[in-house]
Amino acid sequence: MRVTSPCILEPRNESARVLCHSSCALFDVGPLYKWLWEIRVWLDAHPDEVVTLVLVNIDFVDARELEAEYSKADIAHYGYVPPVIDKAPPPSTKYNSTWPTLGEMIDKGERLVTFVNALVPDKDNAPYLLNEFDFIWENQYDITSLDDFACTPDRPSNTTSIAEEHTSGKLFMMNHLLYWQQAFGIQIPDTRKITATNSWDGPGGLGTHMIQCGSQVGRQPTFVLVDFFNVGPAIDAVDIFNGVRQPVGRLNVTTEVTDGTTMMRKVNGGGRSVRAPVLAMVVIALGTILRTLA
């Protein structure tokens, strides 16, 4: 399973929704529908894969407007539509899986799951666009010390405890993002420590955090959100956690990162020089590979 999490903005004097973070002047990936089209082409070429999108809806674009972008990309037919679109199902049990298995989703052709933060669901026009926090809970994301990674629920705002979320049926998205405090209260991803942050073990390591949360929550995180999945051993850490020993079909990607301006630099060397949207201001996440979503 793969998951990616961009931010959507509605720039002035333009009709197309674009992928930016905070300000399109800092970083603009381009129109949403073009990005969705690339995903559609990839799904066409990989009929046994499931992709999850978590769209950060900064400008509160409504479901009808987002549906128009999906229509331009001709990708809506891949959308997963749950039985109830505004509430997570009850937790799965040993004898009853309330979320579909990946195999069931693939067989039905519903291989694109879209969560939007935030969104008023529209059952009639875009039932495949799901409000994120109706189905997902997250731990804290604005961490500035390797010693402070935790598993306590932080969002949605009405969360109270791990026990409550464990019984809610919602999926757990584990944030593992380290920030670097700048002047005027600005925070940026801490590329200085990215190898430690994305490692399997050690203080603040990704693997250490996944094991900690798996133990406290009572089940594996469904999604793991990291900065710069291509830098450091983040993918190796998730493979170890999932028991994947011989992954197949993967391509090398660049280890270059962009700091939000036009400057590009390599972190820890290596990798092919392939321009990819792996930027300091854009979060790209890894999905843990589970037999079922829950």
From TrEMBL:
GO terms for biological process: lipid metabolic process. GO terms for molecular function: phosphoric diester hydrolase activity. InterPro entries: PI-PLC_domain, PLC-like_Pdiesterase_TIM-brl. This is PLC-like phosphodiesterase.
